[in-house]
């Protein structure tokens, strides 16, 4: 019988890479959440993600959002309901399927989304201070390699 090698437990470099990725994403999300809480509108991280999705996919449905995000549809329903009540999202009946509702940002939601993007961009710029354009491109290439490796395992 061929002896199997446990590569996972022999790669402290891989652990350090993913610890660093996790820490960076935690700090980024924490910074965005803090900035959003300080905003008078009090938007949450998940609400900002829903707004971002519909800004990039106007006319998408709640089911589209659930499929894209992998989140529980009931949780998303509550988020969308709140954003509609605050006037940030609008809904329109689907012409082809009246059971379906198409969602898009309202004019107020577009202003909010633009502000949220500006806030996010400031945090991103702060995150890469001291890195050259070339270093940023190298990092993106390396992360895409990791993404490809993980996607090929599916």
UniProtKB/TrEMBL annotation:
Database matches in InterPro entries: HTH_MarR-typ (IPR000835), MarR/SlyA-like (IPR039422), WH-like_DNA-bd_sf (IPR036388), WH_DNA-bd_sf (IPR036390)
Pfam families with a match to the protein in the record: MarR_2
Domain (HTH marR-type): residue spans on this chain: 14-148
SUPFAM superfamilies cross-referenced by the UniProt entry: Winged helix' DNA-binding domain
PANTHER family for this protein: HTH-TYPE TRANSCRIPTIONAL REPRESSOR YETL, TRANSCRIPTIONAL REGULATOR, MARR FAMILY
Name this protein carries in UniProt: MarR family transcriptional regulator
Organism: Herbaspirillum rhizosphaerae
